UniProtKB/TrEMBL annotation:
Family: Belongs to the cytochrome P450 family.
The UniProt record lists the keyword Metal-binding: yes
One GO term (biological process): organic acid metabolic process
Pfam families xrefs: p450
Binding site for heme: 447
Taxonomy, superkingdom: Eukaryota
Record organism: Ramazzottius varieornatus
Protein name, entry field: Cytochrome P450
PROSITE patterns attached to this UniProt entry: CYTOCHROME_P450
A GO CC annotation given for this chain: cytoplasm
Cofactor(s) demanded: heme
Signal peptide: 1-20
Record keyword NADP present: no
């Protein structure tokens, strides 16, 4: 009897709290949204759906351009309209990042530094300005960088020539090495062998880090679930540490230990070729003492951030591009004919060549829309109370851009589920871009690697289609994996020489 009374009391308290909380939200003019339960908010619906893309789509259809909900202790607002995302993400006050336990762990494992992706305030502003300037100076999207990409693409093409028709050939293994080596050359100048076990383990860890499952998600959002999720906690900790150790090795390999570092630093300032790669530029900035947030401690996490953001994203986009060419052979054929017709033989076209390739450009934009590899971007955090579309948004609320919804809503596209590059071709056969395709997000925290990513995808896909016809080897499945970065399902492709 006592037990039933207790149960009833708990249920009544839960219902009462839920109702009071909903009344409070309406009174404060929070954006509409799904029912939030005490302690857990709307998490059960997200966990039951094994990810946020499905529930976010349903809630956007139901509540319109903006909805809000709670995830455990965190309040979140989701934006579903491209113009609204642009307007809100251009405000300084929306430039913070949610500080989850995993972010604190990464920071602790890297000498309490902050990197760039999850940094905030003055530290973020200085590191972002430095990164944009450095990427520009290193020639992103221009000839210098393109030459490096051409060298790496050469190795990938060789692997396809050698093994592209083998039944069990997995093109993703040499592709990973190619993409990882491009970003690695930008950062440190180092190259890795595609069979280097240490490097492959690092790459696996980076991919794992970006592919969340429900357990990892809950571990971060609801601290008390850690009691039940010890295994998950252990694996997150192990992986985060291994990544930090690998990056530390990269720094040591380049600059030696701390004493040698000081020596190298003083040498570097006297040289005029310090712009040679990202790490040298960073060290030079520390030495120059012009930016207060730059310290030698900060180098590791900065390199880790750039590698994590720059590797799996370009990688997954290419997986999607290759798979979509198999799924839509008529698109593949049209791109091949256009490349054959316009680009001189034995030349890999690059963005800056400005070849008139409207159908190819339309295909690349459609790949970005269709793949939507970062479906909800990276969360922002509101640094001061504000309003969005007239709704109250308190300090510390997460603001999320529902990019997948924008890319797939019938409000903005006809037949969004169909991969159709011709939606970006006008009546005169010219390429017309669209501000509703926003894979790199928009505003103050827009991706800093956009030019590099675009150059890589443009050159690698063109080089492959110039030389091979792609055919799926097995069942075709166009469903996305889940996580912060969403990949294709595992697949094999035959690369048939043309
Ligand atoms: C197709 C490839 C890529 C896609 C789709 C992509 C997408 C994104 C998105 C959606 C964001 C979040 C922006 C926001 O918070 O509003 C982002 C941030 C970022 N990306 Fe990329 N990215 C790609 C490639 C790259 C590359 C190659 C690099 C590095 C070389 C890079 C470095 C970064 C960094 C450092 C940030 C954080 C910027 C900040 O917080 O200020 N990304 N990216």
């Amino acid at each position: 009897m006592d037990f039933i009374i207790w149960l009833l009391a708990i249920l009544l308290t839960a219902c009462g709290t839920t109702v009071c909380f909903e009344i409070y939200r309406r009174w404060r003019k929070y954006a509409p949204g799904p029912m939030n339960y005490p302690l857990i908010g709307a998490l059960p619906k997200i966990v039951a759906a094994h990810g946020i893309v499905g529930p976010f789509r349903a809630w956007a259809d139901r509540y319109g351009d903006v909805f809000s909900f709670r995830m455990g202790p965190y309040e979140a607002v989701v934006l579903n309209d491209p113009a609204l995302i642009r307007e809100v993400f251009n405000k300084d006050v929306v430039s913070g990042r949610p500080q989850l336990p995993i972010i604190k762990l990464r920071s602790e494992l890297n000498g309490n530094s902050h990197g760039i992706i999850m940094a905030e305030g003055q530290h973020w502003r200085e590191h972002r300005r430095f990164t944009l300037q450095t990427m520009r100076d290193l020639g992103m999207g221009r000839a210098g960088m393109q030459q490096k990409i051409i060298e790496e693409v050469g190795e990938f093409i060789d692997a396809l020539k050698k093994d592209g028709l083998r039944e069990d050939f997995d093109y993703k293994i040499p592709l990973h090495a190619t993409v990882a080596n491009i970003i690695s050359r930008v950062l440190s100048g180092a190259r890795y062998d595609k069979n280097d076990a240490n490097f492959l383990r690092f790459v696996d860890n980076v991919q794992d880090a970006l592919r969340e499952d429900n357990a990892k998600f809950l571990w971060n959002i609801l601290p008390w679930t850690r009691v039940f999720l010890r295994k998950t906690q252990k694996s997150v900790f192990r992986r985060t540490k291994e990544i930090a150790v690998f990056i530390d090795g990269v720094c040591k390999q380049k600059f030696g230990d701390v004493t040698e570092q000081a020596l190298k630093l003083s040498n570097a300032t006297g040289r005029d070729d310090v712009t040679v790669d990202f790490m040298e530029r960073y060290v030079h900035t520390v030495q120059a003492k012009q930016l207060s947030s730059f310290t030698m401690n900060g180098l590791g996490l900065m390199v880790e951030d750039m590698f994590e953001a720059g590797f799996d994203t370009s990688n997954c986009t290419l997986h999607w591009a290759f798979l979509l060419m198999c799924a839509y052979p008529e698109v593949q054929k049209t791109v091949q004919l256009e490349l054959d017709h316009i680009v001189p033989q034995n030349t890999i076209p690059s963005v800056s060549d400005n070849y008139p390739l409207p159908y190819y450009e339309a295909t690349l934009l459609e790949v970005h829309r269709f793949a939507s590899i970062v479906p909800t971007g990276i969360g922002h955090r509101v640094e001061k109370d504000m309003t969005i579309n007239g709704y109250f948004v308190p300090e510390d609320t997460w603001v999320i851009a529902n990019l997948h919804y924008v890319h797939f809503s019938e409000k903005y596209w006809s037949h969004p589920e169909v991969f159709d590059p011709s939606r970006f071709i006008d009546g005169e056969g010219k390429f017309v871009t669209s501000d509703k395709v926003m894979p790199f997000s928009v505003g103050k925290r827009r991706c800093v690697g956009e030019a590099l990513a675009k150059a890589e995808v443009y050159m690698i896909l063109a080089a492959v289609l110039q030389r091979f016809t792609l055919q799926i080897n097995g069942r075709l499945d166009l469903t996305q994996t889940r996580g912060l970065v969403c990949d294709t399902q595992h697949h094999l492709i035959n690369f048939i020489p043309r």
